[in-house]
User: Fold this.
Amino acid sequence: MNETDPLVVFTPSGKRGRFPKGTPVLTAARQLGVDLDSVCGGRGICSKCQITPGYGEFSKHGVTVHQGALSEWNAVEERYDQKRGLKAGRRLGCQAQVMGDIVIDVPPESQVHKQVVRKAASARVIQMDPATRLYFVEVDEPDMHEPTGDLERLERALREQWEIPEITADLTLLSKLQPVLRKGKFQVTVALHQSHLDSVPRVIEIWPGLHESGLYGLAIDLGSTTVAAHLTDLESGEVKASSGIMNPQIRFGEDLMSRVSYAMMNPGGDQEMTRAVREAINTLAEEIAKEAEIDPSLIVETVFVCNPVMHHLLLGIDPVELGQAPFALATSDSMALEARELELSAINTRARVYVLPCIAGHVGADCAAVALSEEPGKSEDLALIVDVGTNAEILLGDKSRVLACSSPTGPAFEGAQISSGQRAAPGAIEAIRIDPETKEPRFRVIGSEKWSDEDGFAEEVGAGGITGICGSGIIEAVAELRMAGLMDESGLIGSAEATGTARMVAEGRTHSYLIHDATAEGGPRITVTQGDIRAIQLAKSALYAGARLLMDERGVDKVDRVVLAGAFGAHISAKHAMVLGMIPDVPLDKVTSAGNAAGTGARIALCNVGARREIERVVREITKVETAIEPKFQEHFVAANAIPHKTDPFPELAKVAPLPNPSFNTGGGEEGGRRRRRRG
Amino acid sequence: MNETDPLVVFTPSGKRGRFPKGTPVLTAARQLGVDLDSVCGGRGICSKCQITPGYGEFSKHGVTVHQGALSEWNAVEERYDQKRGLKAGRRLGCQAQVMGDIVIDVPPESQVHKQVVRKAASARVIQMDPATRLYFVEVDEPDMHEPTGDLERLERALREQWEIPEITADLTLLSKLQPVLRKGKFQVTVALHQSHLDSVPRVIEIWPGLHESGLYGLAIDLGSTTVAAHLTDLESGEVKASSGIMNPQIRFGEDLMSRVSYAMMNPGGDQEMTRAVREAINTLAEEIAKEAEIDPSLIVETVFVCNPVMHHLLLGIDPVELGQAPFALATSDSMALEARELELSAINTRARVYVLPCIAGHVGADCAAVALSEEPGKSEDLALIVDVGTNAEILLGDKSRVLACSSPTGPAFEGAQISSGQRAAPGAIEAIRIDPETKEPRFRVIGSEKWSDEDGFAEEVGAGGITGICGSGIIEAVAELRMAGLMDESGLIGSAEATGTARMVAEGRTHSYLIHDATAEGGPRITVTQGDIRAIQLAKSALYAGARLLMDERGVDKVDRVVLAGAFGAHISAKHAMVLGMIPDVPLDKVTSAGNAAGTGARIALCNVGARREIERVVREITKVETAIEPKFQEHFVAANAIPHKTDPFPELAKVAPLPNPSFNTGGGEEGGRRRRRRG
Assistant:
């Protein structure tokens, strides 16, 4: 390089340098450390290194570019353009040579570490840095005079052409290595997995010639009720399909503790449950690959997030120790596995599996994934993050310190243990308002956007009718009963006499509030009973007590903001949650929904191998609080039983719609099935 | 430590140092780096650290030892002595404390790196340094206030108690970790595998409390014809049992090339052969564990040596490329595998498998094992090492350089393609002498130590009688025919007229020599035909040509010594081999037998992990010579056709018995079945 050589400036990085005339743009980019992709290593066949040369004057960069600053369009580019089409103004970086001063833009799709912008309001981007990548190599043919194995020559090719010093491969790969090398005339593409948990990069797959059908990964949120998966393109980061199925372990027990009991009571019961969930994951993987129209063997990575019991049952470990103090995990660290170890036969047999670390015996990899997605440890203000499910995972923290616990809310928030309760599915009442004057309800059911007092509601709800009340509906109902003056602070429902409305129905020694009665047409009678109130009180007290316990530990009595995570969190009305006392009071605009944050965390770990190291570090630094042994948890639990607000704390907002689910609304954790089935 | 502290001198190492009164002998040994074993880490329960204190004056060490130089016999030692018995004069190193100047002897069985002396005349010792070892640890119980996984606490215990920084474990181990820890009250013994091919030590097995049933490994010599295994105690190095079975792949083809053809002609044929050999290995492992009366799950390591085709078929790789130039191996490097990858279900499911590296497409891991056992690269004089089988592996070298090739001798040396030929089995003629005067033969058959002209021969040979002639028998027969003047240099058998003996029988246009005729009793008629001579000439020419090719490459026309390896090599008469021109002429005392050197190499690699690194380095440095493409090989082959010696080159030795088989005579490579069946 000397001062008379042409100056090359890359945007958006701003990196610049002088290169002799005739230097390919890709070579210049590599020497400057510019993030320009290439799978074929500059052979003009993969087209990943597309760039856009700029012509004219670039005052910002101090460069005037003349026509002829790049070599002419060549035959390789012409052939590619005719075959696949190049966007106007684009060149192939490996073909175009620097001939004069030039400004070269690297478009996002040509960057290796491209950023994937999520749909979320929070707009956290995922930077692509996947563990598994494609490399095209030309391997030396075997030579009797210098006998080496084909694997050793492939290794040499990767070392010489890609500076990868060493590789390993398992027997299933070895058994196909020789035919593939020969089919590709010793030109092959390998999918290489490099992770901080594996000392040596591993060949996951090999294809003859240039492989152009992509590479995929599955981010799986394995919940007690639902298994949700996001099929992600490992090159672009794009989610190609999302799908969920019910966790078949439900037949062994609705909640986690009944499954632990099943394992304790039935010899081999844990293995039965392990088989069931692994089969379900295989089914899900097949379905999602079919939906995205890809070959399932192109799925070369899977990331799992799950609670500790599901974690153990997925791995084939008896969860019995998690059912009793001291709630010892068999292992808490993150894990790198092979698909076949988990019998995941539906995807590539050599696919790698990453399981996020667990935080504690009750606080699982799903909570770790929420921490990865929501990053409380990077928050300037003090954030309370609640992932509501059968157990609530609670994180409290800011830059100085993060605390975590799990609280046994039970299944009431999911509509279970509620007299008219049901899962979130078409026909379930999901939102309700009670007029403070008339004490009359109006409501909305899943499957319709209309309120029950709007025209056309009956037509839309259709034959299935109104079938019950789901988690978000019961929360709103209880809060509305309180604000309408139909229930006192202790949660006691008033009588028809005391409240002056016939909606109050005596049932034995207590009263219920009648929402909907279709018994005349053979339909259901939907009420909120005193028992329902008690169940919700227990659940919300547990949630609140967990949050309070972390606040005590942190030495604060208020938080700056609240994040509701979980697909369920996306549908809870923040106002009603605060009226109920589920969460500490904060200004309404300080309550946000993170959608399926656990699923998002899984996707981040799938797309960025650095995020795996990051969450492993974060988990080690989190202060773990065990609710089961803290006497103060009981105190907070009892104290939280009351329903404090007797009026609307946010009267300026006449109608508070459920928060929009900002992202990932097709999947879901514990309650992920809801939206899926509703839209399906 | 100061100058008034007692002086401790350890023998045989001679290491010495001063230690404060009350220092346990084990602690002193560790601080000085003395090789003193301990599994329990000084807790007085494993008894591996036994030492013998010396009393009196030790002029060599300048120490006078008084009674009381060690603390008194304590309760722990008393309990152990009553339970198991301690040899007279022995103390437990972890209990006995230094109280005054003392000389302490570490007996061989208390040394970790104990040396195992082989029975061989060459007396090469194996130094114990196995990859898998036992560690007793006390693991912290789980604590809700500091939640960590059981695996992570086991890791911490190994770090704190044994300075092992990091461990890993697979899912099958994880699934038993929690019950075993609790059964052992958090005191467990782990078998930990540490190898240069694995970045992190791996837990292979875990037992509650102190594990005292030992730890075993299998050294397996996987030949085309026979699979031989040596069950070895990984603590003492002792061979507990040796056994062999026929390779069931014989039904797909007698020799390697017919198996390669079978794979080429039959879709899935390679997998059929892979299944067959893996099943055979499982059967062998079961049998050998039964014979040694050990639990097969205590077999935690296996080392394989084999030729390239068997190597590929064991690993599940189609060997088709090995059947045609350029004879490309799928992989040539050594391999670290899990038993389950090879479907070795008879041994511990987590057992580790080490496969020695291959040298070239025709020169396998078996030849590498011979190099490990015979160490041509450490030889002062130029050694020619020949492992005779269906293919002959040939090594030539000394300290300056080692060369290797493989030569296609064909199966004639094993009795195949010989008119009266048979495998080495009872009834086979294995040695023969022809009287130069009378031209009459006398011979010995497998199953009897008597010669055919000795009294009682007929009784000993028994009902089975004389059935044929095996490899060593045909070699002797051809050489004796030459020395008796019954055959010329070109290998042409003379007529009855020309030789003056009726033993010469005309058969068509050529003649045969009649050794034994039992047709009158319905038995066989055993002759050496002109065709037999031609077959042996082809085989010996190939062997000789291979050796000559290496000598050319090395620029020499003679070697200093010859080593015959292989169980077959152990039975060849060196004199007859030289008369025949199988091997270059050297003084008779410069021909030695290495016995089953490949099996010995496997055992060395099993017992000493450093030997694995060593052979990997050696193999990289060996000069590989490919006979198939060297025009000079053909020249040497043609030139070697003649049988040069017409008289006994060693007339001073009237009768030359076969060389004794110095070691490993129960197993065997290609022909290992012989001795086994003979003695069985």
In short: The CA atoms of residues 305 and 674 of chain A lie 19 Å apart.
